[in-house]
Structures are given as C-alpha cells and as structure tokens.
Amino acid sequence: MGRAAGSRPLAGLGWFGIVRIGLVQAAIGALVMMATTVLNRLMVVEFGLAAAIPAGLVAWHYAVQLGRPIWGHGSDRGQSRTLWIIAGIAVLAGGMLLATQATLMMDEAGPVPFVLAVLAYTIIGAGVGAAGTSALALLASSVAPQRRAPAAAVTWIMMIAGIVASAFTVGALIEPFTPARLMLVAWGLAGVAIALAIAATFRLERGHHVFAETAKAEAAPDFREAIREILAEPAARRFTIFIFVSMMAYNMQDLILEPFAGQVFGMAPGESTQLGGMLNAGGLLGMIVAGIGGSAFRARMPSDLRVWIVGGCLGSAVGLAGLATAALVGPGWPLVANVFALGFCNGLFTVAAIGAMMGLAGAGERTREGVRMGVWGASQAIAFGFAGLLGAAGRDIALFILGDIGRAYQIVFALEGGLFVLAAILALRVAGTSSRNTSRAAGAAPPNDREMFA
User: Fold this and answer.
1) pLDDT tens digit string along 157-198?
2) Would you call 272 helix, strand, or coil by DSSP?
3) Cα(182)–Cα(115) distance, rounded to whole angstroms?
4) pLDDT tens digits, residue range 347-375?
5) Would you state the torsion angle of the CA atoms of residues 222, 28, 66, 147, taken in this order, to the nearest 10 degrees?
6) What region does 218 belong to: left with phi over 0, alpha with psi -120 to 50, or beta?
7) Angle between helices 335-361 and 369-402 (to 10 degrees)
8) pTM for this prediction
C-alpha cells in the first residue's frame, strides 16, 4: 500500500476489501474462542481446577497484548501490514494448538502442563496483538472517512460471526467428547483460520493509498514520540478510560459462563460451548440492529452513537441481573434466552463504541493509526485480563466464604452489572463521533479532539 499521497487521487478500500479485513477478524475470533471458552471450561469442570487458573492464563495472554502499541508502530513503519497480519495469525494458531495439548495434560501430576500452558498463552497474546492491531490499522488508514464507522461495524460483526460459527461447529464436533477428538478439531480450526487469512489478504494492500490525515508524506516518528503525541491528546485519554471500563464490564462473565452452565445447569461440554455461541449470536444481532439504526438516524441525531452505547450498557446490566437470578433458580430458568438477550445488548453498545474508535483513529494533525489502535487495544487488553481474572477469582473467593456455588456466581454477575451502569454514565460524556465524521466527509472542516469528546 502506498504511504505517500503526492498528487495522485486517493483511492481507498471498497466494501469488498473491507469484508476481506473482516474475514481476518473472523479468523482471529475463531482461534481465540477455543482458548478462552472451550479450554477454560475443560480446566474448571472436567479437570476440577480452580476457576482462577484458566482466568490467570487468559489474563496473561491479555497482559502480553500490552505490546500492541509496539506492534502497531512496527506496522506503521513497515512496508506491508499484510505480513504482520499473516504472521500474527500463524503464531496465534500455533499457540492455540499448544494450549489445547497443555490442557489435555492437566490431569497429570507435575508442573509441565502448566508451564506449557503459560508458554502457549504467551504465544496466543503475541499473535492476537500483531494480527489484530495491524488489521484495524489497515482499516483505519485505507478506508474513506465517511466509511470508517460502518466499516468498523462490518469487520466487528464478522469477527463475532467467526466466534459464533466456530463455537457451534466445535461444540458439535467434540461430542461425544474425547481428548483425541478435541485435538483433531483444534488442528482443523487452525488450518482453516490460516488459509482464510492468507486468502483474505492476498494483494489486499496493492494499489490503495492512505486517506486524509494519513496522506501526509512525513515519516513515522519513533515509538516514544508517537506515544507522547497520542497521550497528550485529551480526547485519546478520555476515550482510553471509557474503553477500559466498558470492556471490563463486557468481559467479566466470559470465563465463568461455561463453568456456570456446567455446574449450576448441568450442561455437557458441547452444550456449554454452544451456549457461548448463543451469547455471541445475540451480540451479532445487536450489532446489526445498532449498525442499521445508527446509519439511518445519524444525520438527524448528533448524539446517536451515545444513545446506542448507553442503551446497550443499561440493557446488558438488566441481562446480568437475570443471570444473577438464574444462579439461584437453577435449571428452571430460561438460561438460553437470557444469555441471548445479554449478547444482544452487548452488541448494541459495541458497534457504536468501535465506530467512535475508528473515527478518532483518523483524527488529529499527525495521525498514527497503528499506535493509536495499539494504545486502545492495550487498554482493552488490560480490561479484559483484569475483568476475567476478577470474575473467576471473585467466584472462587465467594465460594470459599459462602460455600454455595449459586450465590458465588450471583455475586460476580451482580458486580458486572454494576460496571455496565458505570460505563453508561461515562458514555454520557462521549459525543457522537461518527456524526461529525460524516460532516467531515461532506466537506466540513475536520473536528479537533475537543469537539469530538467534549
């Protein structure tokens, strides 16, 4: 992809190119699903480990992603983001396979399985960070301003679709469950994901030029200078805080939902994996609804994105109140419908938040898409890791104190609901970024950061 503007007209990625980046996101989501849901459930339910152990591993893979700004900066300075994407996917797939093997060894005595698991989740974190940051940076730098928000929605929806498809497929293929069957399915998933990423990125960057602010021909600064630039922007700092709180709320139940289904509702591994698929299926529908609604009313409602974010956060809090009730009621509760509704509300706020992030990534006088995406990706990674660990450890501590598995889960779900309410309050301070981007696309002067996040 050409990095200099010169006098040539800028030509960004069309919708087919955007969908191809979405396929990369789908491959990432499918691989991560195995490590964070299927293997997590096996460790807790089948092998009887404390929930904090898989939560700690997942938190560690997020901690590794604190390197996202560095990988994003390397992508900014390099000649091809495609190489970063494919290499990241390959590393992620290898880490997922090693994590699967380590999990299946955890019924053995000794530290070897746990050492292998730590190594595997380190590799997974590096792969996700390199591939994901580069894919989003490519999207931000190669798409016309007026397409950034809907392009973000498309790619995020496709990532969730990849998680949903892999969850239902893996859940069906591993039944009846055997270690050999799980390993075979993991190898198949890795092969499909790598092939999909290679096909999706083939010649994707060729012939496209970066848009608008990134069309300045100046060379990227060194990493420290780029970080200082971004953190000096009030808008970037404020958005980073919002990302942290909202993503913490979004992810706290992620590592305990499947164990919850197994321990309180008696679901088998394949059934609980498919329940996780229902959560993401609801999220997929919510994203589509928010994307369509936001596009239809954006021109007339400047605060439209904020409305979707706040509504989705409050709806998610209600869904978690339902799960807290389910923890006491047990099998008589409509768990599948509750989980689907929670996912739907998650999807409503996620698309709007990602649309705002894409708009801000292209803002400012000296845009650094890779580093910006890396900073927000690092904030998300910290939130995801801390939330997952807090949810699982909170469940273990509550179980130790109360001696009641249902009440232990109830406390965690209630805490997560409270975080969603806090995220909604913070969102009330966030202006509708995408509506201002639309004005920019129509020829208005580009807004500064204070205007977008006043």
Assistant:
1) 888 888 888 888 888 898 888 889 999 999 999 999 999 999
2) helix
3) 21
4) 888 877 776 666 665 554 444 555 666 66
5) 50
6) beta
7) 150
8) 0.68
